[in-house]
Each structure stands twice: as C-alpha cells, then as structure tokens.
Design brief:
286 residues, Tetracycline Repressor, domain 2, 13 helices
C-alpha cells in the first residue's frame, strides 16, 4: 500500500488541518440554528468534500509546477520531479478527486452541487496565479476561505453572514502565512520570473505585509465574538488563535528563515485545531 503513502505525500495530506477545522466550525454554526440538528451522514459528506477538493487542488499544483520543482533544490525531491509518481498518474488522481468532489456535493444538496464547479475552478486556478500576479497568496486563501461557507451551506442550504465572516478570517490568516512560506523561494522565484510578494518587495517588506494581513485576521476574529455566544470557550479560541498568530511572527526574521516550517505548519496547524476544539463547543452551549 505504498502508493497511498506516495499520494498522501504528494498532496501533503496533513496540511488538511489548515482549513478543515474552520469548515467544521462553519458546519456547527449552522447546526446551532433552531430547526437544524446534527446529521453524522452530512458531516461525513462535508469532510469528504474537503478531502477530495484539497486533493484535487494540491495534486494539480504539484502537476503544474513539476518543471519548476525539479529545478528548485528545496522541492526537487517532491514525488513528481523525483519520479515517484508519473505526471499521467498524478493527472488521473486529480481528475478522480475532482469528480468525487462534485459527486459528493450532489449528495449534500442542490445548492452545494451547483456551486461545486465554481469552488473547483477557484482552487485549481490558484496554481496558475504564481505565473501571473504576486497576489497569488490571496487567491490561495480565497480557495480555503470557501470551506467554512460551503460547510454552512451543506446544513442550512442558504447563505448567511456568520460563515462569510469566518471565511474572511481564513482569507487573511492563510494569505499571511503563505507569504511567510514564500520567503524561502524569493531568489528562485525572481530567477524563474515567478510572482510572489517576497519576489516583488523582498523578504523584509514581505514580512511587514504578512504582519499587516495577520493583524486584519486578528481583528476579524474578535468581530466573530458578538455573532457567536461569548463564553469561556469562544473567548479562549479567539485569544489562543491570535496569540499563535503573534508567535509565528516572533519565530521568523527576514535574515533567519530556519524556523519557517515551524511557523508555517506547526504553529498554524495548532492554531486552527485549537480554534475549532474551543469554538465549536462554545457555539453549541445553550
């Protein structure tokens, strides 16, 4: 079963921790409304949609970037340039997950099914944007920001402001930490004429931009409190999330990128999981 491990590494399956906790928070925001109740079947379908969509998006990113990855010492060991997974097999994996995403959305409700191709377009289109604009980080974050809104729609079947606000938190949070992650490839991106905030303005200014964007995320998290119930759990979720936002900026300096991976994956993974673990029971407390 080594192929499961290979594809899991291809899409960095563990990075699902970034958006999934926020999707679950959006799901339980809807469940908390009068007239709605928890459906385990629906919850499983939402989680499957998240997994299939992310697999398709990340697989497509690796497929499209395979030539650049092979030339970058940091990424040359990835599965496609290293020959572990062929481009043809990777494309079959992408198409299969895209089809499964749309099919799973059909089993949720009509609105989710009709919107599934739109969501799929956004998350796949991101892979082209590094060739077009340094704002690519914000296209990535838009793709992840869809998750809590989609999870809410799965339950409620209609739009509302609370999940949109939750999505804006994800938007600023993800774009901020993706700018930090892109610091590692500033020189390579310039050489290959790829676009990113660090390649455009340099590491030092890029870090300042990331701090500003994360400051907006922190403010958005606080504005969530009046919408949900203010209690020990929701307040703790907000304070811990914002504390970890601050912590990752203490880890990384423009002249020392040795702790970028800790800031990118460990800190943000912990932040999203703790946010959901505390926010969801806070929402559901009557």
């Amino acid at each position: 079963m080594s192929w499961i491990t290979d594809f899991s590494r291809l899409v960095k399956f563990e990075h699902t921790l970034f958006a999934l906790p926020f999707a679950l928070t959006g799901f339980f925001m809807a469940v908390d409304h009068p007239g709605y109740q928890l459906s385990w079947k629906l919850l499983i379908l939402v989680v499957l949609c998240m997994v299939f969509a992310r697999n398709a998006a990340m697989g497509f990113n690796r497929y499209l970037d395979r030539r650049f990855d092979s030339m970058n010492p940091r990424t040359a060991g990835r599965e496609i340039p290293a020959g572990v997974i062929s481009p043809r097999l990777a494309m079959a994996f992408i198409v299969g997950n895209a089809v499964l995403f749309i099919l799973t959305a059909w089993f949720i409700n009509k609105l989710c099914f009709y919107l599934s191709p739109v969501a799929l377009f956004v998350i796949l289109f991101y892979s082209y944007t590094k060739r077009i604009t340094p704002l690519c980080h914000f296209v990535l974050s838009l793709g992840l920001a869809i998750a809590p809104v989609g999870a809410y729609l799965a339950v409620a079947g209609s739009f509302a402001w609370p999940p949109v606000l939750l999505g804006t938190i994800v938007f600023f949070w993800v774009s901020g930490f993706d700018i930090i992650y892109a610091l590692q490839d500033e020189e390579f991106d310039k050489e290959m004429n790829l676009k990113s905030v660090p390649a455009l303005v340099g590491k030092k200014k890029a870090l300042r931009i990331s701090e500003i964007v994360h400051g907006l995320a922190a403010l958005q998290v606080f504005t969530l409190l009046p919408i949900v119930k203010i209690n020990f759990f929701t307040l703790s979720a907000v304070l811990l999330f914002n504390g970890l936002l601050l912590y990752q900026h203490l880890l990384v300096r423009h002249d020392d990128l040795s702790r970028v991976n800790i800031a990118f994956f460990t800190t943000n993974g912990i932040a999203s999981v703790l946010f959901a673990i505390l926010m969801i029971p806070g929402i559901l407390i009557s």
